Amino acid sequence: MRKFLIAFAVLLSLPVLVFLTAWLLPRPTDATPAWVFDGDGSELDYCELPVLDGSGLMARDIAQAHTPGCGYTVFPQPILKGCTEPLPEGAQDIRGLWQSIDPRLPEHVERVEMCGDRVVVTTQGVIHDHATDMLSNDVVPSEIGPLTFCLRTSQATTTWEDDKLHFKLLGGPTVVTRFIKDGVYQWTHPRFGHIKMKRICKVPEHARTSPDRSHAL
Q1: Which of 16, 102, 104, 199 has a Cα-to-Cα distance from 62 of 20 to 30 A?
Q2: Pick from 176, 186, 174, 179: which is nearest to 163 by CA?
Q3: Residue 209 carries which DSSP code?
Q4: Lateral strand order in the sheet of 174-181
Q5: Residue-wise pLDDT tens for the chain (217 aa)?
Q6: Beta bridge partners of 195
C-alpha cells in the first residue's frame, strides 16, 4: 500500500514539475532579426510567395525568432525574409496566410513561412520558429485564478512524415501536424482537434494588432 501511495504521489507531482520547469526555465538569448518588428507585417500581400531557388539567404543564415515578451501586439514582418533555400525532399509547400473555416475557431489566422528545413508559424501573438534540429522557444499567456503570467512552452522540432509536418515535443512524440490535402490547409492539435483553413492574401483587421491569445497554438 505504501509503495502504491508513493507511486501515486509521484504521478501527481509530475505535471507540477513540468509546469514549474516550463515556467522557471530561462529562455535562450533572443537573437530575433531586427527587421521582424520593424513596421507592420499585416500590410503585405501573402499570396505573393518568394521563389525558393537558392539565390538568396539560406535558412541558417537567419537567426531563430522568439515571441517578444508575452506576445507581439503588431503583426511581425516575415522572419525568413530574403531566404530562398529550396525545401527538403518530401516537404509540402504549406506557405501562406491562412484563416480558419471551422466554426470553433472562426477568427484564427496564421502565417506559415518555410525555407530549407525552417518552418515559422506566426499566430495569435506567438512566433513558432522550428527546424529539424532547432527547438522552438515560445510563450503562452496563462492564468491561474487572479495570477497572469507568461508560460514558456512549445518546445518542439519538426519533421516531414507521410506528407504531414509533425511538430514533435522536445524532438519526441508528435503533438501537432500540419498539411495540405485536396487543396485545403489543415492541422491537428490535441486541444482543438482537426481544423481546416482557407488561403487569404491580407491579414484581417482583427488579427493585425493586440490579438486574442486565448487560442494561441
Answers
A1: 199
A2: 179
A3: B
A4: 126-130, 118-123, 109-115, 96-100, 193-200, 184-189, 174-181, 164-169, 156-161
A5: 554 444 444 444 555 554 455 555 566 678 899 889 998 999 999 999 999 999 999 999 999 999 888 788 899 999 999 999 999 999 999 999 999 999 999 999 999 999 999 999 999 888 999 998 888 877 766 667 676 667 766 678 899 998 999 998 877 889 899 999 998 999 999 888 999 999 999 999 999 875 555 555 5
A6: 187
Residue 164, CA distances (Å) to 53, 134, 175 in order: 23, 18, 12
C-alpha span between 95 and 112 (Å, rounded): 5
- Cβ contacts of residue 146 below 8 Å, gap of 6+? none
Characterize 186-216 residue by residue with b for buried, 16 or more Cβ atoms within 10 angstroms of its Cβ, and e for exposed. Answer: bbeeeebeebebeeeeebeeebbeebebebb
Alpha carbon distance 143, 206 (integer Å)? 23
C-alpha cell at 81: 525574409
Which DSSP letter does residue 28 get? Answer: P
Report d(CA 192, CA 207) in Å as an integer: 19
- Does residue 81 contact residue 38 with C-beta atoms inside 8 Å? no
Model's pTM, two decimal places?
0.83
Can you name the residues that pair with 169 across neighbouring β-strands? 156
